[in-house]
Structures are given as C-alpha cells and as structure tokens.
User: Which sequence fits this backbone?
C-alpha cells in the first residue's frame, strides 16, 4: 500500500511548477517509508505522473546516478537527509 503521506504529494507533482524542494521532500519520504511500488505506480498513472515517479525511484535506486537536472546532486540529497536524520 502507498503511504498516505506520499499519496498527498502525488497531485502536487502534476503541477507544472513542481519545485525542486518538493522533489527533494518526495525523495526523503520515498527513502524513509515502506512503499509498495506497484501501488505507487498505479497512483502515479491516475495523475499521468509515471515519468516523474520513475525518475524519483531510479534516482534512489542508483544513488543519484541519473541524467536528470530536475533532481539534486546525491551529496545535496544526503545532506538534506542528514538534516532530517534520515539514513
């Protein structure tokens, strides 16, 4: 099941002005909670956000080794995670 906290972010992802800070917080949440990936992808499809969710998940799986300028450098993400005490 997709975390209720993350489901709340999904409609915000659809906004054209999806900010880098919102992406960072989505990454923090995805890295910290147990998520059923199939459920997450199903919810993303409802909003036409498959590419956005794919990018976030690929980023986390590869530790930032993605060619996507919408996402932070891995070191920047790790620093933010440290501020929130997320490993």
Assistant:
């Amino acid at each position: 099941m997709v975390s209720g906290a993350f489901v709340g972010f999904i409609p915000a992802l659809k906004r054209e002005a999806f900010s880098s800070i919102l992406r960072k917080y989505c990454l923090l949440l995805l890295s910290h909670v147990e998520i059923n990936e199939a459920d997450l992808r199903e919810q993303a499809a409802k909003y036409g956000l498959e590419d956005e969710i794919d990018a976030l998940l690929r980023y986390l799986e590869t530790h930032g080794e993605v060619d996507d300028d919408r996402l932070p450098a891995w070191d920047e993400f790790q620093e933010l995670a440290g501020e929130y005490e997320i490993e």
The two ends are 22 Å apart (CA to CA). The mean pLDDT is 84. Residues 14 and 49 are 7 Å apart (CA to CA).
